[in-house]
Specification:
single chain; 79 residues; alpha+beta; two-stranded antiparallel ribbon; two-stranded parallel sheet; 2 helices
Length: 79
């Protein structure tokens, strides 16, 4: 327990408080928790077929695929 000073009008009181638990962002910063592993599939949207084939072949176990749209060859003039 940790002591805290609480002011209630003219009265000051010392009370016991619990030490606050770290929030989700602090846990991530400290590396105590991490998300699923990721894999960037090259080629942007043109890599979706490869990602789907990996899923069908059972090569994707507990992995999240990332497709960077800006890496799609035909999107260069659009973005």
């Amino acid at each position: 327990m940790k002591e805290a000073i609480v002011k209630k009008g003219p009265v000051v009181e010392i009370v016991d408080t619990e030490i606050p638990k770290p929030g989700p962002s602090q846990i991530l910063i400290e590396g105590k928790f991490s998300g699923h592993p990721t894999e960037v599939i090259p080629g942007g949207l043109e890599g979706v077929q490869k990602g789907l084939q990996n899923l069908k072949d059972g090569k994707a176990s507990a992995v999240k695929y990332i497709f960077r749209i800006a890496d799609t060859p035909w999107s260069k003039g659009i973005m």
